[in-house]
Specification:
- The protein folds into 2 domains: 148 residues, no CATH class; 129 residues, Up-down Bundle (Four Helix Bundle (Hemerythrin (Met), subunit A)).
- It is built from 10 helices and 6 strands; from the N terminus they run H-E-E-H-E-H-E-E-H-H-E-H-H-H-H-H.
- The strands form 2 sheets. Strands 4-5-1-6 form a 4-stranded antiparallel β-sheet.
- A hairpin with a 4-residue loop joins strand 4 and strand 5.
- Helix 6 packs antiparallel against helix 10.
- The longest helix has 43 residues.
- The chain starts with a helix and ends in a 6-residue tail after the last helix.
Length: 298
């Protein structure tokens, strides 16, 4: 079964949020003249009218993209790939975030006339209200689209009018592209796996047992479980080393009890040693994939 049969792509297309800042070139010239400076050395003076009010909306948009990548694996930007059986779970999560973002933006638009009047008054003669769009104009500019796409499958893509040689060249090109993206995705996955396990190594080495709340084993073990759950659908080539690594993590790390780790230094030390072995094995697989690829088209 090809990757195109088992996975889909999701992308978040977003934009339309105004910058909220206006550059005033005349003010820049006045600053240059007042200080005897070369005008070319002074950039336009930025006037922050409502940037601070749209910043949370813009940041929330960014979190939506990050959630897409967190739930899947980055592919060719802005796409992340997800196993087919996860799509019906992931899309409603993203749709809920989309509606939340729209509500945030519309709330800003409702407050916009008052915000604009107050901020322009405080900006003196640097700006005037007619320099800015109306609230109705702003409402039409916001957009977030959740796009779904299929991965290319050259084995079933027959293009009318192409010669056999052209079709074979096309298949080769698509396979190489898919392998390149798969290699990057597997490396991303392995580094996601390695990160929380390396944290266990680090914290177990530095933990002195004397400070309550120094670190949360619940969080670390939970983070490990989260990435382990990705390892089956994102092991594109059914790599036996990745599967063996997954089973070892489940056996040695996922079953650890956070309370026992906090209370038993010997148990914590043993967990750190097991985690270090897993980190070393992960590094070896990372080096192999980086050198030879994900193995989809070998």
């Amino acid at each position: 079964m090809s990757l195109a049969d088992s996975h889909q792509k999701l992308a978040i297309r977003k934009g339309g949020i105004p910058s909220g800042g206006v550059p005033n070139k005349e003010a820049a010239l006045e600053v240059a003249a007042a200080h005897g400076a070369d005008p070319d050395m002074i950039g336009p003076v930025p006037v922050d009218i409502f940037k601070q009010y749209v910043k949370p909306v813009r940041a929330h948009m960014g979190r939506m993209s990050k959630e897409n990548f967190r739930l899947g694996i980055p592919w060719d930007s802005p796409w992340a790939i997800h196993p087919n059986n996860n799509i019906d779970t992931i899309v409603p999560i993203l749709e809920e975030m989309k509606q939340e973002n729209r509500s945030m933006y519309l709330e800003f638009c409702d407050d916009y006339p008052n915000i604009l009047e107050d901020r322009v008054a405080r900006a003196g003669d640097l700006v005037t209200i007619d320099m800015f769009p109306s609230a109705d104009e702003l409402r039409t500019k916001w957009y977030i689209e959740i796009e779904r796409g299929n991965l290319p499958d050259p084995s079933t893509d027959v293009r009318a009018g192409w010669s056999h040689r052209q079709m074979e060249d096309y298949k080769t090109a698509v396979n190489r592209q898919t392998e390149r993206y798969a290699k990057s995705a597997v490396l991303t996955l392995l580094n996601e796996v390695k990160r929380p396990i390396h944290n266990i190594v680090d914290k177990s080495a530095r933990y002195d047992g004397g400070r309550e709340g120094r670190w949360s084993t619940d969080t670390f073990i939970g983070n490990v479980q989260e990435v382990v759950d990705k390892m089956i659908p994102m092991n594109f080539a059914d790599d036996p080393e990745i599967e063996a690594l997954r089973k070892e993590i489940i056996s040695d790390i996922c079953g650890l009890d956070s309370k026992e780790l906090r209370e038993d230094k010997d148990l914590l030390k043993d967990a750190g040693q097991k985690a270090q072995k897993i980190v070393n094995k992960t590094d070896k697989i990372i080096n192999r994939v980086a050198q030879f690829g994900a193995g989809l088209t070998l």
